[in-house]
């Protein structure tokens, strides 16, 4: 489908040639985006890992977010899914549904953001589709990775007695969205910027994910996208078990800790708000020291935050061991 005449954009094929075809350089199977499909030669002894996510204006990003940051977030949230499988990213497919308000400057900045992250993460555009929509602006990306045959990590491998660990810090994305909505004005400017950056630019733990997979010590793993409590519940349910989460041991950034010290009622948001894109995993307690050492070598810390239990559901406890009621377990679209 061609971009309609009312659009502020050039014709569909001119747009692709100008902004998206250059992103396929270095991907021979993409054929310069001049065909209807691409090819990819799978390395011997490996299998594909495929994941897809969509970002919709007004739901997953703010309408006035810079286009380059929207592009980078689109790619990174998918790379985070690959990281959770221990996969090596190789490329991606993308569909862009632009509105009549989308102009060429926005598309140029969007493509520039993708180019920056392609260079950082070693991936390229393999193909996709460009269409028009009455709105809202919608973007879909399918990331493609590879992993040694049979080695992809899953949600359903947790075992009773496993320790639960998480990478990085939790809650920054949810608090960053509040910063972008002009909350926490009393926070120092550098901490406001840190939180906003964590919302705009997730850090997919690709290197850590591959190292954890290669260690052979991880029983289950996924990324934290919809909230720590909800995503731990996904692991527990898929494994036919329950889990205990110790809220006081959840790692926080200095900015999040400062906010929480003044507004303790925000702890449920930190635990359920999502947009963290950290790795959540389980492993035998005896293997925890080795995993902590591995993570330290890579430069992305891991923290022990709970354990897998018999039963069902996630039991969240406070510093004193008391129950914490969660109004919601995490983000849901419907």
Structural features, described:
Helix 2 runs parallel beside helix 3, helix 4 (172-180) packs across helix 5 (189-200) and helix 6 (206-215) runs antiparallel to helix 10 (288-298). The chain is of the alpha+beta class. The chain has a six-stranded mixed beta sheet, sandwiched between helices. The protein has a four-stranded mixed beta sheet with strand order 1-4-2-3. It is globular. The chain starts with 11 loop residues before the first helix and ends in a 17-residue tail after the last strand. It folds into two domains: 12-148, PurM-like, N-terminal domain (60s Ribosomal Protein L30, Chain: A), CATH 3.30.1330; 163-317, PurM-like C-terminal domain (Phosphoribosyl-aminoimidazole Synthetase, Chain A, domain 2). It has helices at 12-20, 67-85, 104-121, 172-180, 189-200, 206-215, 228-238, 254-262, 267-272, 288-298; strands spanning 46-56, 88-98, 124-132, 138-148, 163-167, 218-224, 242-246, 278-283, 302-309, 313-317.
């Amino acid at each position: 489908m061609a971009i309609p005449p009312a659009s502020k954009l050039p014709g569909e094929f001119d747009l692709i040639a100008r902004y998206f075809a250059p992103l396929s350089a270095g991907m021979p199977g993409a054929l310069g985006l001049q065909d209807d499909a691409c090819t990819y030669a799978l390395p011997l002894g490996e299998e594909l890992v495929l994941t897809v996510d969509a970002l919709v204006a007004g739901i997953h990003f703010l309408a006035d977010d810079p286009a380059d940051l929207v592009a980078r977030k689109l790619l990174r949230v998918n790379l985070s899914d690959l990281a959770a499988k221990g996969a090596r990213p190789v490329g991606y497919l993308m569909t862009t549904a632009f509105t009549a308000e989308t102009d060429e400057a926005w598309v140029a900045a969007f493509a520039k953001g993708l180019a920056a992250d392609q260079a950082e993460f070693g991936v390229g555009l393999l193909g996709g589709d460009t269409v028009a929509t009455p709105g809202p602006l919608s973007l879909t990306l399918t990331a493609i990775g590879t992993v040694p045959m049979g080695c992809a990590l899953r949600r359903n491998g947790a075992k009773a007695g496993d320790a639960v660990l998480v990478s990085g810090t939790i809650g920054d994305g949810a608090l960053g969205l509040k910063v972008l909505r002009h909350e926490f004005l009393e926070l120092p400017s550098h901490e406001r910027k840190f939180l906003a950056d964590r919302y705009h630019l997730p850090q997919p733990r690709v290197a850590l994910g591959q190292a954890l997979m290669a260690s052979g010590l991880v029983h289950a793993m996924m990324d934290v996208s919809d909230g720590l409590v909800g995503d731990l519940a996904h692991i527990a349910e898929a494994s036919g078990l329950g889990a205990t989460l110790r809220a006081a041991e959840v790692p926080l950034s200095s900015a999040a800790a400062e906010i929480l010290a003044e507004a303790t009622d925000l702890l449920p948001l930190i635990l359920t708000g999502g947009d963290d894109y950290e790795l959540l995993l389980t492993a035998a307690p005896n293997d925890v020291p080795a995993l902590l050492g591995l993570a330290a070598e890579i430069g992305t810390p891991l923290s022990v935050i709970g354990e897998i239990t018999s039963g069902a559901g996630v039991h969240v406890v406070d510093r004193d061991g008391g129950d914490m009621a969660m109004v919601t377990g995490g983000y849901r679209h419907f």
